[in-house]
Amino acid sequence: MKKDVSSVLQKLIKEQPATKHYLTSLGVPLVKQDDGHFLIDVTDVKVFAGLSTFVRLLTNDVIEQCSFGTADIMVRRKIDAHLTPELAGLGLDWVMVYARTDAAENLLWYHKRLGHHMNIVFSAIQTEQWGGLLFGEFFGEVKNGKTHTPPALLFPFHLHSEDMENGHFFLLEYSKTGRFLRVTIEDAAASRLQLKHIRHRVVDNLDRQSYLPDIQRIAEQIHQGILRECQNFRAEYKETPRPQSDLFQHLRQGGIAELSTILFKWPTEDADMLLPELYNEYLTLLNKGLLLVEDPDVLAVLAAGHLVEMTAGSHRLFYDISRRGACLNISFDEQRALFVLDDYLEEMPSLRESCSSRKGSLENVRVFLIHHITAEVLGLIKAFQEAGCDSIRTFFVKYAGIVPDEYLETLLSLPEETFCFYGLQEIASRHSIRGSYLLSRQYSWTEELEPLDQVLQEKQLDFLDSMRLAAGHLFFKEAIQCRKKRGTLLLVEDGGYLAPLINRFCLENRSVGEVFQYFRLLDSPESNNRSGIPPEEIKTPLAEWLAGVFAGSVEHTRNGFDYNYEVMEEFGRLQFPVCSIAVSELKRGPEARECSTSIMNAIESILHGLGLMLSQRRVLVLGSSGAIASCTMTDLSHRIGPENVYGVDIAASGKHKNGCIEVKTLDELPRENLLDTDLVIGVIGKSIIKQDLLEDIVLHGRRQNLFFASGSTKTVEFKDLEDWLHKLSTADHPEIAGDPVRITRVPVRDLQTGVLQGHRVSIAFENTSIPAKNLYLLGGLTPINFLYYGIPREMIDGVMSQLLRVSIGLINYYRSGHPLAARLLAVDHEINVDADPLSA
């Protein structure tokens, strides 16, 4: 009876494993260390330059031969020592590819897989495990001065194909005398090769093999980026998916599905990689580093949360995944520094002391925090945790500037069952002055938030309304969870985003369904209930529904204080107590002075970047009698002279104490002074410069460059200016007072860091007798001090301590059965810092 040749061949292949266990695709083991991290030594792994290009050319030659008709094919390609010097260094002149008709006839339809398999074959040559079998001398494996006829390498790809009966296997042979490699492609079902008579080794784990196309090109591009950052005295380089799509696709398919950033870090002393004589050394190191992440086992270890250390001679690379799978960190020579929440609290002695004496005070309390993303707020989050909070949900207020990577690393290393973080991302438009906002993907993103994100995208709301919609949506999700778990909910916010709305809706007797519709937890009060609450609660008054879980809120800012005060004035009371530190002696005194300094520092830094000086400006301060702006008036009068500073405030008396002109309204300010003004600083909490005045300044003002900066967290200081520019930029035929104009906008960036500092809007008149104007919208007209570092920690430490103490005090009264009065209660006025009522 005739034997089944295919089954015999498959049995033969499976019974001939390699003599050395295959651990990684690099042919070297990945070893788990006692401390739990993994170590791999790639010192002896060779990097072959130009290999992917050579393989692509060779594969194309094979496919071209196949297109000539049904026949055996034989391809011969000369090895170019300039393209592939390492291949030439093996003593090779040629590479031959041979396939009989039955194997070749399917290769035209097998083009992509053929290229993939050819890359695996030639990648194996780079490893000591397989390349050492063929080229022992190159890998230093010749013993006792004797040479041996090398075995062939068998690649049984058919065992891992979707249709094993019609698959191929490759046989790689080296002819030392002929100085060539032969690749024979065989149809596994009809092979004529007598493998029993051919000395060979089977290359195993082919189903675990993967390769990265053009790995040398990718390494070269990354190397150039690292060198550029070294030249700028930086110690990190960031790669994103757009310029390196192949690399990110490979890593995502390999198990790091959420990857969005690769961050390279190095010690400052490693700047010697700039030296010309070390160029190739570091480029080779990067090539090996990328070869490592080709390996599926390495990627699986990384995806599982382990640290991988790669050694290559005297160099080391450390790999780890952070930010909940979004960032791959590759660190040269030493592990990257990791900051935990404790580190931020440790730097704040006042907050730390307040926290240490109140541990456990917030047990079974869920905090919804709306605040800026600063080091001090991270310390506050840790303080809430130390005080016993079960859950802390934080919605970050993000203005201009960037979020430091160190903050993200810390936040996204925290357990999601206790900590969740959210924020908005501005989406700029080239066609509009005004941007729109979506939920940021930097923080805690889930598919459940997609409907909310869609609403934000459709409505194109401004910053304040976007913040209120998104924060309200998430707050009431937290309230639902709080009711289910019978906990207590506390709102702590910086800016009055939610507490005024919550109190207003309760006092207007709105139902749960109406409010949930407002915040888009429901499409309508009668729609399908996807909010997660029992249907019978939909018509419940919001005040009644919240009464069992919501203790009240704590407000940080004066703007938030004012929003809540407006509601209390309208209704005569609030539904829930609002404790505020906004007008405390600390906030109105020392902190106001530091805030003013921070505002002026940010403005002056931008001016210097533009080659301009503060001393040459004429400044108008809006809200000049307020706590912060009065300090700004004093600072400016000392810096540039009182004759160059003007103030507007409803509480003004006509002359500022420093001799500056100060009036109640803009109408009272002499027009000559207004037309000579070129810097407007708004710390007033409302928009008072209207369109007619703006047109007058643009048409008749004496200064070509006009600067606008906000120091208020209300973000509405220049809403009329923004609306006017938006209308002009979107009009088909824009005009100012009947004169046609052309509007252009360009970003203003810090020349040293590249940070976006705002935009310059240029207005050019068709009537050239009217001078053009440049309007600089500093910080995007959001609070300018947050563009840099805000108020220093030495001051904010005490402020955060107040915020923690009054929060705990509010909860203590709520639990005592004698809650605080449902009013706006200010520290140092109606209550003390522990929320104890002050005697009248």
Task: Explain the overall architecture.
The protein is an alpha/beta fold and 840 residues long. Among the domains are: 5-29 and 44-208, no CATH class; 215-332, no CATH class; 587-787, Rossmann fold (3-Layer(aba) Sandwich), CATH 3.40.50.720. 35% of the residues lie in helices and 21% in strands. A hairpin with a 5-residue loop joins strand 1 (31-32) and strand 2 (38-41). The N and C termini lie far apart (111 Å).
Q: How would you concisely characterize the structure shown here?
A:
The chain is of the alpha/beta class.
The neighbouring-strand order within the major sheet is 23-24-22-21-25-26-30-29-28-27
Distance between the termini: 111 Å
CATH architectural name of the domain at 587-787: 3-Layer(aba) Sandwich
Write down how many β-strands occur, each being a DSSP E stretch of 2 or more residues.
Answer: 31
Our estimate of the beta-strand percent is 15-25%
Residue-averaged pLDDT, rounded?
89
- CATH H level, superfamily name of the domain at 587-787: NAD(P)-binding Rossmann-like Domain
Rg result: 34 Å
Q: Within the CATH hierarchy, at the fold level, what is the topology of the domain at 587-787? A: Rossmann fold
Based on CA inertia axes, which overall geometry fits?
A: elongated
Helix content: 25-40%
CATH top level class name of the domain at 587-787: Alpha Beta
Largest sheet: 10 strands, mixed
> Could you list the spans in which at least 5 consecutive residues all have pLDDT below 50?
1-6, 12-22
Give me the number of helical elements.
Answer: 26
